[in-house]
Amino acid sequence: MMSAQEVWWKERNIENVPRARWFGIFRRSVKLSEDIPQRLSIPSAILSAPRHVSPSDDNSSLSTVSLMISCDLNIPENLISGHTQQDDFVCGSAGLAGILLKEEPVGLKTSKPSQPGLLPQTPEDSFHKDEQAISLPKRLAYLLQPPTDVLLSRIGPLEWPHALFDYQIEGIKTLLSKDALLLADDMGLGKTIQAIGALRILFLQRRIESCLLIVPASLVGQWRKEIHYWAPELRISTIRGTTAERTWQWATPAHIYLTSYETFRSDCTDHSQSPPRRRVWDVVILDEAQKIKNRDVEISRKCKLLNRQRAWALTGTPLENREDDLASILEFVTALKDGESVPRLKPGFELQEIHKSLQLRRKKQDVLPQLPPKIVSQLFLSMNSTQRKYYERAEKEGIIQLKESGESVRIENILALIMKLKQICNFCPIDGGSVKFDDVLERLNILVSEGYRALIFSQFTDSTYGANAIASRLEEYNPLLFIGALTPTQRDSVIRTFKENRDHKVLILSLRAGGQGLNLQDASYVFHFDRWWNPAVELQAEGRAHRLGQTFPVNVYKYIIEDTIEEKIEKILKEKQLLFDDLVDSVSIDLKSKLSSDELFGLFGLVPPGHLKQPKRRAAFTGNYAEMSGMEFEEHLKQLLEQKKWRVETTPVTRDGGVDLIARRDDDIGVEITLYIQCKNHASPVGVDVVRALNGVLPKNAAGIRGVAVCPSGFTADAITFAKDRGITLWDRHHLFELF
Amino acid sequence: MPIPYHDADELNDLGIAGYLKIHPVQDESGYLAALFLINARGEPIEFTYNRIETPHTFLWRQADIHRHAIRKLTASLLSLCPKTPRLILCLAEEVGSELFCQDIQLSVPVCRIAPVIKALPYSATESQDKIEAEGPMNLFWYPGRPPDDSIELKLLHELSAKGLLTEPFERALIGLREVYSDKGA
Hints:
heterodimer; A: 740 residues; Rossmann fold; 4 domains; seven-stranded parallel beta sheet; B: alpha/beta; globular
């Protein structure tokens, strides 16, 4: 027997309730015929009349009881029915947001009829400025957008991929409230994220419709990725390529027009109808704005020619003591309406005052408590044309050689080609150019001027592609080199010198030699010049700087060159989640064992020969651990690890000190990794005592040693927390199955 | 060139929620009301509004005038709103249980919201529920709490998770003030 409520729910035909289709800020002309709106069917009101009163529905007749409530009800007004054409009612898709989209669609705004002040500066405070110019529906549409605080909230309607730090939220709010801003936060504090966050909200609130973003050529890809990540709904038109392509790209409807300084310089001419100057930009953003520090250079002059409602400049370079540079940048950071000329600022008190009012700069020290101890950034860079040309030629030649090898081709041939291409990603062997090095140099300029020092890791040591090549180009920073060719005495000397003499701003290390056993808290910036695709190795390297004694957050930069083998492998490994969820907690990964032949050959569009087709993995272990004795379980685990090419020894039962198995294996760079394994085949999750005992017997300060506690039934929350804090790996049933 | 758009199906499928806001005019000469529709992301979809003037007469009890005015005002908004929300939310301190339990019957569920710390009457025909939003909140559902797996409940939880359980009422009031700035809103 169903209750009345259940009957109500059952009888209600949910399918008949039309669904509002909403395409967010992009729905400009999408019309869906299947969703015809229905008006609510309101049954005749069941009046519960007041005693002695018979209220009249039409307000026009007197009740027989002699009294009437005379309510003056306005003729109902509706924003949509009152202000839109019949056509707009197809599918009922015209809503409040639609109202904002009806005027001046993207791409049609021209510079001529610019009317500063037509759009409100903020939805809350300035509607009444020009109320006559803005229709009521449009004013409402602005006002009824979610408030900024809600939008910035982690649990708000915008889904931010990560929580924003308080200082970043403050930065976004400042960007939202200022038409002109020089955001000069310390490097690594997330200026990019703040700019994208502010853009996202401005677009959502319909306060802007177009943004021109000018960045260094090497960072175009990085910006694209960051925008996709932080504001996936924003459409980007990247301006690059041939003239014909660029013409089309400038005309493509988009929210953000992203281009490099070089491309912008060639497309922005003195002609007022050249693509970048044809419209009034709602926002123009210059990344690495120090590029226009010289007001006499062409790029500086052209940036200031742009018609812009808002102008933001981003830079991590301290400018306080360089007034000429500052003046040039601040000349840009002034909203320039159509017809206005660029102001000429002169060094002096006035400039300093303007600087104070237009700059937002937070140093790391200011926001130290908010920062995580380690900030890892992946930097996607684009090669320059010479490097790209050479890379593509090497790749083509390599593929031809592989094809010519036919059936005799081996995995090692593929790996050799990968290695060669990785080297070219570091430096172009023709002219020595390197987009990675250029970026490192730019960052070093900033961080060294602020008193910081850096470690640069590379897997190569030679003078063409590796550590020596980097060192020879960084002489101004008095670099030190720490590579495998040094004797132990020399190594000690290098480390001592780096610690004692702060004139050495950079220490360049080969991963093999410098990845382990060093304490280098004196450096708070770490650069991975090339990727090892092994988180463990990279973590060990980062650990040189990020360890006890380090009082400052460590910034780690990892370089990946777009459209190269680096990006391809990164993508595959990410898809397989090997970089994050490796079964042995990132102790060791080597490409050969982690990528199948299909995947390795597929990197070059090839199919592996028959003899390299990998046999299918064995069926997962389905046995019952509960039926195993402790010894059997140890033996079982030993076999599993040996299949993975670990050398495993069983410790004597009576003197194991809490360690049952010791497994060893050389990792990719020839460093021996040792696992101290404690096996507990308990029926219930293992507690913190067991993990604590294991931690107690691990050799202290020994490189490459890691404790592993194994229990198919899992671990208690305390145990997991303890293990995490101490770097101890825990394997439960799931991990054991993965070992197959 | 395809038309750029972003279709986040999951949230779209949750539909839209209607927030019924009733606000007395400052000089007590009537009420303003708005039915503010937002989607699961909190984006505004529709804003329907109206006002009613109530007589100042000793012959009528204020409670009766209030009830009648709110009923008429609400009915006018509902009949005009071109979109159908999945559910209607209102504040219990503004809308009494009699409006939707007796005066107006709807084909969508209605949820009256009240902070737990406020003692507000509710009807026996409503079912009471609780939710942790900006604080512990009582929910009074009519004709009853939607089933756990219903879209209506999912929509409510989605809004609540995003801090949008009561915030849109504030926006609706801002909208009313904009519309009726000359009417003592």
